[in-house]
Specification:
Elements (H helix, E strand, L loop, with lengths): L19 E2 L6 H16 L5 E9 L2 E8 L2 H5 L4 H10 L6 E8 L7 H13 L4 H14 L4 E8 L8 E8 L8 E12 L2 E13 L4 E3 L4 E3 L21
Parallel strand pairs: 1-2, 3-4
Antiparallel strand pairs: 2-3, 5-6, 5-8, 7-8, 9-10
Length: about 240
């Protein structure tokens, strides 16, 4: 009965951070975030999106979009971003700033891997060949472990089944383990096929906070040269 918790939500505050950063006693902002994410995923379906981070500060909203094809989102001269801002303003009344960041190594991103497998299955490629190729390409990038679960009417069989493919180690019970997790669905002529991907990227020993532009450590080690030292001399009374 174990290993059924989401590995990302289980490690919040340890090796991962929230994808939305704001505080409010009302639920209107949560509804806006869900609508914005849904709209962006539909609007930019062909740009291979990874994750969307939203941060709110008073009357401003900062949206950071990670993609393996940022040029499609930006467009010529940034025209597509301005169109996207006008469309999102219909959902919320706040000032919007959009940052587009590139995923330099898509083989280390669980969502991009799951989507790549789904696209290959939709193009009638054998699922075993697609999964083995993605596992091989991920291990070449020095990943400690990868696990893929696929379920549904595989190869169009009448009886649905589930299969697992695993290489390396994935410690689900270790909170310090930096595990990326994602799900995706492949829409085929014989029904939906579900895909789950787990990637073990390493072990985190220091707490980390996810900023909008980069993943930086929360507590930095101070250099000895920057630390001001003061000496106290005790004098004995005669």
């Amino acid at each position: 009965m174990g290993q059924k918790v989401n590995p990302i939500s289980n490690r919040l505050g340890i090796s991962t951070c929230w994808k939305s950063r704001w505080y409010s006693e009302k639920f209107n902002q949560l509804k806006e975030d869900l609508e914005i994410r849904k709209y962006i995923n539909i609007r930019l379906a062909k740009s291979y999106l990874s994750y969307i981070y939203i941060e709110r500060k008073q009357a401003k909203m900062f949206i950071t979009i990670y993609s393996s094809r940022p040029a499609i989102i930006i467009g010529k001269g940034g025209n597509e971003i301005e169109k996207l801002k006008k469309e999102i303003k219909k959902i919320t009344n706040k000032k919007i700033n959009i940052n587009i960041l590139e995923v330099k190594i898509p083989e280390l991103d669980a969502l991009l891997i799951a989507r790549n497998i789904a696209n290959q299955i939709e193009n009638r490629l054998p699922y075993k060949k697609a999964i083995k190729f993605t596992i091989y390409s991920a291990l070449r990038k020095k990943v400690e472990g990868i696990k893929i679960k696929i379920s549904g009417r595989l190869n169009g069989t009448e009886m649905a089944r589930t299969e697992f493919y695993k290489e390396g180690r994935i410690p689900f019970s270790t909170f310090r383990a930096n595990i990326d997790y994602a799900t995706y669905e492949a829409h085929t002529t014989y029904g939906k096929i579900g895909i789950k991907v787990w990637i073990m990227k390493g072990v985190v020993y220091n707490k980390k906070e996810l900023y909008l532009l980069n993943l930086r450590p929360l507590f930095k080690k101070k250099n000895k040269s920057n630390i001001k030292t003061s000496t106290y001399v005790k004098t004995k009374k005669k």
